[in-house]
Amino acid sequence: MPIDPADVAICLEDEAPDEGGASTPMAPPIVQTSLFSFRSFQDLLAGLADEGGHHVYTRGSNPTAEAAERKIAALERGEACRTFGSGMAAISAVLSSFLAAGDHVLFVNHTYGPALQLAGHLERFGVAHDVTLELAPAAVEAALRSETRLVWLESPGTMTFRLADVPAIAAICRERGVLTCMDNSWSTPMFQKPLAVGVDIVVHSATKYLAGHSDLVAGAAVTSEALMGPLFEKGYMLGGGILAPFEAWLLHRGLRTLPVRLARHEADALRVASFLADHPAVRRVHHPALAEGEEGERSRRQLAGTSGLFSFELARGTFESVRSVLDALERFHLGVSWGGVESLAISPENGRNASELAEMGLPRGLIRLSVGLEGADPLIDDLDRALARLA
Ligand SMILES: *Cc1c(COP(=O)(O)O)cnc(C)c1O
Fold first, then answer.
1. Average pLDDT, the chain
2. Could you tell me which residues come within 8 angstroms of residue 46 by beta carbon, excluding any fewer than 6 positions away?
3. Fewer CB within 10 Å of terminal CB in the chain, N or C?
4. Which are the catalytic amino acids?
């Protein structure tokens, strides 16, 4: 599906301030400052009374971060966005701003590992959590407790890319007064806009597609003005995990090419995934565009497109076969993270975690690929050669 031209316009929108002369810079300045000085004490007091609305201190707001924040908010159709020093800083800010002792969080779907580890850490502060891999709205509703304050969604989910029925779950939660937060790093707002279907908060690892070049770590949270109030005052200002001006500038630069990058990631990943789906050494490909039945319908209904990250299961699902394939790859780099211009491969297998993988509901022999921008042909050749080792 083509990317919405309105979103392309937002990505390219000029964010350089008009200085009133005959010409203006094409790129915004990097406002590399920790603080802003005021002309009068009265003005300083007014600034301190509303740090969200004034430039006082860069831990509160900074014009370079705001250039990226305006674009991300507009793309997600949200009222307010704040950028963070990492995706985890954004996730931490949401959890610490909205949860208190006695609350319960329900994670729906396979969830980014460190987010779950953070929830485990919050147990010492009296916050409980559960994970449900049953994605039918009725199953999610049944897993809610009277203390559930927040439902955490990741759709498509980590590693197996299954889809939850996001609008239905958001509606159930809204009716019960439960907040919803969705990690939208995989789709980006180009392919899915959770706030538009009733989700309360969206978080991003902007390290991935939003920045897109594997050269910075960043996060973002987008929500309504009403929810941004506590999120800004508590998780952002007091958590302190802000994005530095130079990183914010790089993120803003990445956003300008997001639509063209994603269109190419999508097309090439689909070709690689289709090649793998037909390969005899592959048991199954986990890619939302190849999903069938109800899952496929959900994918077509909820996603305007698919990005470049997916996984596949080797027919011979052992650590040794995973290692053999990964070590034979030449075009794919081995490494964590994803969403950059280079293709990456990794596996949850480590040779001694078979029971852990089973507990997490992950299949054996899983390999995750992030398809970069090298073009599909050399990547397919690389995989073909590496898989031939298993013959
Ligand atoms: C990488 C990632 C995060 C964490 O983001 P960082 O920028 O690495 O802190 C969160 N969610 C998903 C889905 C991720 O892939």
1. 96
2. 54
3. C
4. 59, 112, 183, 208
